[in-house]
Amino acid sequence: MSRNSFASFLLLVPGLLLIVTACSPPTYEGSGCVQPGMKAGEDLDPAYFSIYTSTVNGENLRRLYSDPCRELNHARISPDGQWITFTRYNQRNPTTGLATENTGYGNTEIMVGRMDGSELKSVVGPRSGEISGNGYWTPDGKGILFVSMKHGQLPAIKRLDLSSGAITTINTKPDGINTDPHRVGGKLVFASRERPSDPNSIWVVDSSATAKQISFPQPTRETQRLAKSHPGLGDFDPKLSPDAKSVVFMRRAAKDSWHVVKVDLATGEASNLSGHDATDAVPEWSPDGRDIIFWHADLKNLKNSGLYVMQRDGSNRRRIPLPGGYFYTMPAFAPINASNPDGRMIVFSAKKEPLL
């Protein structure tokens, strides 16, 4: 799902080359960019794109990592609470120099750093035109599952071993376009489609290594015309519950409408946890499995948009009170560990947006 997303340009920004002609817009290379509402020569906000933590009630807000020009998202905290991984975008808009999801997934990279902001490094990528994104910790914290796409190949789910740096392909669904991995215990859940124009559906692989389809989206005449639009039709971003008995994911219901759907793996029963015209996306479970955190957009009143929590049956929806002026997205609960004993810590992305 798309998410929109200083040192002055007249100061010495490393690697910046500003080209201005009478007939064409400026082109930025290297590390420079122009943020919305700014002009070349004005100070950049170094925290324009950031990753934050807070408690689920919006308290103890803390910025972990930030970048003035490159979007940071899909942040997840390691099982021991010592590390964080996230995706960083590097494919820049030729006019503004901003690298966001809207400018493409090419050149993305998987980052890992400590929770105190130190030892940040790229562990996969970036490579020109290649995709490396949507990283998720393995249950033992020794590896990261991520989506990879190399030139001329279909997307695949890979596993990075952090100690050796070795990358292996995870056996999921042969000849499928496989994305959005998440593992709990011996189960792996992911999204897949046969062709780019097909609806995405959700699949589970257990210890038998046989992929089983668990979601069956039914495109309507209204949504079928969106098949060739980004990101397409169907179901995305599945997450297994902590007990691995249920899966939540987001389903495209209309051009600007997304629903959170839950499937019981034992019965196959699917429940829509969102309203008819809601825009709810990227759901994640709380460590105890009682709540689901997600991003909600109110298209009638954008100031009501933000991060929300609801109970696992869709009841008691409530907004997380965070400071205004930011576009918040990609929320996740931190695992229970010594630094998060009550399981109330959350991690999320934020982008400066004065209108919100």
Give me the secondary-structure topology.
Elements: E1 7-8, E2 17-19, E3 27-29, E4 43-44, E5 49-55, E6 62-67, E7 72-77, E8 83-88, E9 109-114, E10 121-124, E11 131-137, E12 143-149, E13 156-161, E14 167-169, E15 177-184, E16 187-193, E17 201-205, E18 211-213, H1 221-224, E19 235-240, E20 246-254, E21 257-264, E22 270-272, E23 280-285, E24 291-296, E25 306-311, E26 318-319, E27 326-333, E28 345-352
Antiparallel strand pairs: 1-4, 2-3, 5-6, 5-28, 7-8, 8-9, 9-10, 11-12, 12-13, 13-14, 15-16, 16-17, 17-18, 19-20, 20-21, 21-22, 23-24, 24-25, 25-26, 27-28
Provide the residue-averaged pLDDT: 87
Bin the helical content.
Answer: under 10%
Our estimate of the beta-strand percent is 35-45%
Structure class: mainly beta
* Biggest sheet features: 4 strands, antiparallel
The tally of strands reads 28
Into how many domains do the coordinates divide? 2
Low-confidence segments, given as residue ranges, are: 1-24
Form type: globular
| Neighbour order of strands in the largest sheet | 6-5-28-27
How far apart lie the N and C ends? 19 Å
Radius of gyration: 20 Å
State the order of secondary-structure elements, H for helix, E for strand: EEEEEEEEEEEEEEEEEEHEEEEEEEEEE
